[in-house]
Amino acid sequence: MGRYRVAMDIGGTFTDVVTYDQQSGAFAATKASTTPGDLSEGVLAGLDAVVDEPSGIDFLVHGTTQGLNAFLERRGVPVLLLGTAGTEDTYHIARGPRARLYDLHYRKPTPLVPRRDVLGIGGRIAADGAELTPLDEDAVRAAARKARAGGHGAIAVAFLFSYKNPAHELRAREILQDELGDDVTVSVSHEAAKEWREYERTSSAVVEAYTGPIVRNYLLDLEGRLDARGLRVPLHVMQSSGGILTAESARRRPLQTLLSGPVGGAIAGAELSRQTGRPHLIGIDMGGTSFDVSLIVDGEPDVSAEAQLEGLPMLMSVVNIHTVGAGGGSVAWAEAGGLRVGPRSAGARPGPACYGRGGTEPTVTDANLVLGRIDPQGFAGGQMTLDVQAAEKAVDGLAEVFGMTTTSMAEGICDVANSKMAQAIRTITVSRGIEPRDSALVAFGGAGPMHAVFLARELGIAETVVPRFPGAFSAWGMLQTQIRQDYTEPYFYLDQDLDTADMAATLARVEKDGLDGLDREGVAGDARHASHAVDIRYAAQEYTLTVPLTGADEPLGETFLADVAQRFADLHKSRYGHANLGAPIEFVALRAAAFGDLGRPDPQKWPAADTPEFAHEIRTVVFDGEAQDTLVARRDHLFVGHTFDGPAVVVEDTATTVVPPGYAVNVDDIGSLIISRKDGQ
């Protein structure tokens, strides 16, 4: 058995690496510059910084942004889409936005596949799964010839009712692979998303086809490089659902990794909730290019069965994360007489002006440096020395436009960024009936702790928690998760027609498929378990809510229908503000999630302080327009029992925590910084 458990999280600016030494029980974290041209280089550089030999690694997981970046930057492979003849326009007709019916400025999202690359294929499956018309195999072969001639790198196959009977999709894939070999990737919709909505299922298959080859090639390249360096264990990849799977499985189901980068923070938040006894948390992850918000409700991440990116839907289990373009590298600029911050980012190169890589535009990082809130000598663990004069010059150029002083402009940049981030938190909380003041704010990411207390003040949140290794918190979370595979079975019954014995049998079958599927992931039989849920709606409604069940045998209970109806009503009222208990309900789909436990690090207790004193210095930092004497301490000098008041700055290798005046800080027993208002409000 190897000595280290290692997790790596690729960000827009830095790649974070966390290691757990199974012999000493100690964690360590570091950063390496992200290498956009070849992400594997940044991953390997980060790995070299913490582990001498990959052969000493017992477990390795990482979150990849390859698929997401390919999607957002529209650099996926050209896709040919095959649909059922007569319905091939489904993908381009799409679905009207319910929330924007009267928005005169609404524009439909741009499809990933142009209409000229959508072909109708003869053959028809009925809604009950019966074959009405045989598949037109000659048309499929003609489509293969078109794909070869047109230079398409992938084919998506999405036939009507394939979730009920996939025979036509499976046969189409066989023909396409016979004709094209391994030159073209084929994605079939019933595997991408075994769900009943035709447009959403088609969109899921298209996204998988569009990004899949890039993800597969990246993982193959990274696995090859790691193998050449002596890695003896499988590479694992974070999924959008918050679970992990082996890279081999990820290559088969690349859609599941699309949002794998951001979700590590949500899983870390759930573990922090368990360790600290705080059931409700709002996680904020501020990196170099983006600001991600996630929720922990009753100790669990907020997960849904559907996601949208740039208006395009995907049916898959995904941790709900709201993202806005507000990071340390977000560029500040003037427009129409007002100050704008982001979403455009300076990225890793050239980066903020203070990086000294050729950037000249002012960014949020430059503003914080001008205000004295960042140590220019110790940035990113001392890997970079920041250019204060370059930052001042960049901010001063914008200050002249508004007739302001340099420091006032710097505070203005931070205030606008904070306002934008606070609104992102409101979007994922208040708009869903969740009161932010009932939760604690967990700050992570390289820049999150720098802005968190200001956000908490604006939102009325009483407590801010800064965990250990905040800049690598998402990577730490990846060490806390499990293997996960999700399965869905469409199941349409009104409550009055439901056969609970059949439902229990179907759930048991789906669970068995899930648990058996963990064989490929190398999970021992006694380390497997499953959870179940059912999608329910009021009769004649269009959309559903997912109601958790307590076990596969629950539908056999005499009070099952009454219990699940009550739970559905409670969820409906929580989400929409009303419910109609007693009205007919309809079951739409059964869900099973199979989990495999690969072990996790033991919680590491933080040492207690021997004395209330700790090493620190006093520097001048700007708060509320005034230069104030500010306590500056190293995080590794703070132990359980240490307390101090703001204004203060806490410096560590992966992040900087800023505490404005009027707040107090104490260190809990796992080393987290707990920041609260001095007046207790």
UniProtKB/TrEMBL annotation:
GO CC field: cytosol
**Pfam (any one):** Hydantoinase_A
What sequence ranges are listed for the domain Hydantoinase A/oxoprolinase? Answer: 201-486
Domain Hydantoinase/oxoprolinase N-terminal, which positions? Answer: 5-179
A GO molecular function assigned to this protein is: 5-oxoprolinase (ATP-hydrolyzing) activity
| Gene Ontology biological process terms in this record | glutathione metabolic process
Which PANTHER family does UniProt cross-reference here?
Answer: 5-OXOPROLINASE RELATED, HYPOTHETICAL 5-OXOPROLINASE (EUROFUNG)-RELATED
Name this protein carries in UniProt: N-methylhydantoinase A
